[in-house]
Amino acid sequence: xxxxxxxxxxxxxxxxxxxxxxxxxxxxxxxxxxxxxxxxxxxxxxxxxxxxxxxxxxxxxxxxxxxxxxxxxxxxxxxxxxxxxxxxxxxxxxxxxxxxxxxxxxxxxxxxxxxxxxxxxxxxxxxxxxxxxxxxxxxxxxxxxxxxxxxxxxxxxxxxxxxxxxxxxxxxxxxxxxxxxxxxxxxxxxxxxxxxxxxxxxxxxxxxxxxxx
Length: 213
Description:
This protein is α/β, with parallel strands linked by helices. It is about 30% helix and about 30% strand.
């Protein structure tokens, strides 16, 4: 895959350790869900290292008063792409418990492999927030591209996309379609198969998160 300035692929041994367990077909639903949340928290810490919205506040310590930088209230929104993206929300909320949550529903047409929107509910004022779009699997990139386009139509200007597993095809598609959106992926896998599933991947993330087939 070619290099993109707006793409970050994580290479952290702790994340890779958790990915190994995540991939295992014997990993239980409970552990799978917990791992998705843990990986999301680790990724969020790095994603927002430099540009999290902050302000200054005076804090009185037992010894004196000082000026401390804090995260702005109501400055971040999490937008999971339904349904698998729901598994990542708590991982962001661990670090930003007051973040508002919107939802974008997409399903994949099994013949064309293209996404179809069926639901959208976003927080008021989302256009003024840093928006974290989350989906565990970045496969063809269709759902991610459409979700980002929808958010831009709603006036959102500061958007980041975060996925646990990415395929080169999907990462390239999002990076090229939305060069102003930074794409964060914990692991870049080999390719897509003929059905649009990531290889080696981890199966269907939604099914493994919610115990469905």
